[in-house]
Amino acid sequence: MIDPVPEAQSLDVPPPEPPALPRRNLLYRTFVGPRGVRAGWKVLLFFLIFAGIGFCFRPLLETQGKVDMHAPVPPGFALLNELLTMVDVLLSTWIMARWIDRKPFGYFGMPPRNAFRSAFWTGASVGLVALAVQLEIMHLAGWFDFGTLQLHGADILTYGAFWLAVFLCVGITEEGMLRGYVQRVTTDGLVRLPGGWSFWISALIFSIVFASDHLSNPGENKFGIVMVFVDGFAMCFSLWRTGDLWFAIGNHAAWDWGETFLFGTPDSGFLGQHALLHPSFHGSALLSGGTDGPEGSVLALLSEAIFILSVAVIYRRRKFRLLSEDAISG
């Protein structure tokens, strides 16, 4: 016996809907958004990892003994401290990139393929030229005297290289810390804001943090803190135009090296041992910079203007890509 053929299903009947996915609870949605862990939590986790790695490095720093930060800092202590801090920043960024964001390390501002290429050297040149111009104007105005040579012969190369290594680490550390991972993640987290507002609000937040971090520096003055904020914002502008941090790293390293070693001035309130020159300052701190150094002088505004104008002229188009643009192109 042949089984009857079942009636054909009416075309007017809609297919059954797939079962609805379970709605995530409030706790889950607090920590995780449409693009994974929310930006604020990632920034917090980055700083926690940074603090944890730094705690593990403390025994290495303690081998150097106690150093009076109000006196000129020995280059050996400075190099170890800055090297470990740089490694800390790079490791923290790599951990977050690899395990949390699952993106290439270079996405967060320091692509290895661009290291020490033209942008780095251009930034370094702008930094040294701006500093030299500022100090010469201060000298002509009677606020600054270059002083005399303190080093001779091989000592110039030895300590010059030592301090260059120190400030290369400083440049990578300070740019990578507040204008690398956290700037990129916060900008992506504010993607719903129109235009470039997501980037500039992030720049404002972390430039304030950057200035606040200098409050405890010995010798720092109020105007110097303002200039640290301005400098942070200017560095963000270079990131906006160049697309990565290598111009800023070169500029930061060269400026600090010029202050501490080449001209022997204070650097955000710190002095270094074995500087090339032994300068002196005259007049009010607002004009000379005083114990803060050149960035505590009102003429630091000229140096920042030189920096910003150089970036604007050399890099005429923005290269920093916003997350919304990547989504459109994808």
Task: Describe what you observe in this structure.
With 330 residues, the chain is mostly helical. It has one domain. It contains 12 helices and 4 strands, in the order αββαααβαααααβααα. It has helices spanning 26-31, 39-62, 75-101, 118-140, 154-178, 181-189, 197-212, 222-242, 246-262, 285-288, 300-314, 323-329; strands spanning 32-33, 36-37, 144-149, 277-281. The strands form 2 sheets. It has a two-stranded antiparallel sheet. α7 (197-212) runs antiparallel to α8 (222-242). The longest helix is centred in the first third of the chain and has 27 residues, at 75-101. The N and C termini lie far apart (59 Å).
Secondary structure layout:
Layout (H helix, E strand, L loop, with lengths): L25 H6 E2 L2 E2 L1 H24 L12 H27 L16 H23 L3 E6 L4 H25 L2 H9 L7 H16 L9 H21 L3 H17 L14 E5 L3 H4 L11 H15 L8 H7 L1
Antiparallel strand pairs: 1-2, 3-4
Quick synopsis:
This protein has 330 residues and is mainly alpha-helical. 59% of the residues lie in helices and 5% in strands.
